[in-house]
Amino acid sequence: MSEEILYAFTEPFDSGKLKVSEIHELYYEVSGNKDGAPVVFLHGGPGGGTSPKDRGFFDPKKYKIILLDQRGSGKSTPNACLEDNTTWDLVKDVERLREHLKIEKWHVFGGSWGSTLSLAYAQSHPDRVKSLVLRGIFTLRKSELKFFYQDGAGHLFPEAWDDFIAPIPETERKDIILAYHAQLNSVDDETRITAAKAWSKWEMATSRLYQDPVQIASADEDQFANAFARIENHYFVNAGFMREGQLLEVQEIDKIRHIPTVIIQGRYDVVCPATTAWALKKAFPEATLHIVADAGHSSREPGISKLLVQTTDKFADL
């Protein structure tokens, strides 16, 4: 990608661990302007964790930039832990962090699973959200999971699909997510890590319009793959701990219609296809939808990065 699209990020002036349960401690960091507009960045996955580059979507002169590693992810501990790890635990965690940092209202920015969590958080705490910037919309409906993990995206990436299903015996391929669940929770380390790397590589291989070997190679890192794959699979087996289509229900959207919202979606996103962004736009016509014609899923696609930065620039003075 063209790195110059993003702001040069500054180092955090505050960071720490927030204890949110008997089990979980969450890493957070704050950078940019101490007196700037507060924005919380909600990462994807679930299980993906944050990167210093994520600070680059925000003007550090205008924003107080808050990054949070969700339960089991990134620098949060214990790594890859599935216990007490649900959508609604994470919603409570985001609110705990807001209270901990003594912020009254903040902007909320999330892509992929981060868009899911952003919607769930905003619908739970609409009075605490100044704006929503959502990218690569994912609402965890059965049809979305089926497309990417069962019968859909593999038609476009057949060679990567063969690698993805290779750990799963042919007799178990009628439900790939469930079959992976058994291997990702195996007591055998080799079985678990092999499955985790294959699961993670599938998403890394399909996330961009043009495949990025560096991104694909990240799936070979044991700790990242273990957390990313196990936590994602845990959420998907459990349907996101939500009603089918809950985030798109009229009574849920009604709670957030007053929040300025921009949706940015790659036309050729196969991880979170544009049909979900379109469904959100139809349910939430007050939101602005941009479909980027030459982009896949990743926030690092140049056209997507450019629109994300333009949008955060616009919202900085709200």
TrEMBL record:
<dbReference type="InterPro" id="IPR000073">
    <property type="entry name" value="AB_hydrolase_1"/>
</dbReference>
<feature type="domain" description="AB hydrolase-1">
    <location>
        <begin position="38"/>
        <end position="298"/>
    </location>
</feature>
<keyword id="KW-0963">Cytoplasm</keyword>
<keyword id="KW-0378">Hydrolase</keyword>
<comment type="similarity">
    <text>Belongs to the peptidase S33 family.</text>
</comment>
<protein>
    <recommendedName>
        <fullName>Proline iminopeptidase</fullName>
        <ecNumber>3.4.11.5</ecNumber>
    </recommendedName>
</protein>
<feature type="active site">
    <location>
        <position position="269"/>
    </location>
</feature>
<keyword id="KW-0645">Protease</keyword>
<feature type="active site" description="Proton donor">
    <location>
        <position position="297"/>
    </location>
</feature>
<dbReference type="Pfam" id="PF00561">
    <property type="entry name" value="Abhydrolase_1"/>
</dbReference>
<keyword id="KW-0031">Aminopeptidase</keyword>
<dbReference type="InterPro" id="IPR029058">
    <property type="entry name" value="AB_hydrolase_fold"/>
</dbReference>
<dbReference type="GO" id="GO:0006508">
    <property type="term" value="P:proteolysis"/>
</dbReference>
<feature type="active site" description="Nucleophile">
    <location>
        <position position="112"/>
    </location>
</feature>
<dbReference type="GO" id="GO:0004177">
    <property type="term" value="F:aminopeptidase activity"/>
</dbReference>
<dbReference type="GO" id="GO:0005737">
    <property type="term" value="C:cytoplasm"/>
</dbReference>
<dbReference type="InterPro" id="IPR002410">
    <property type="entry name" value="Peptidase_S33"/>
</dbReference>
<dbReference type="InterPro" id="IPR005944">
    <property type="entry name" value="Pro_iminopeptidase"/>
</dbReference>
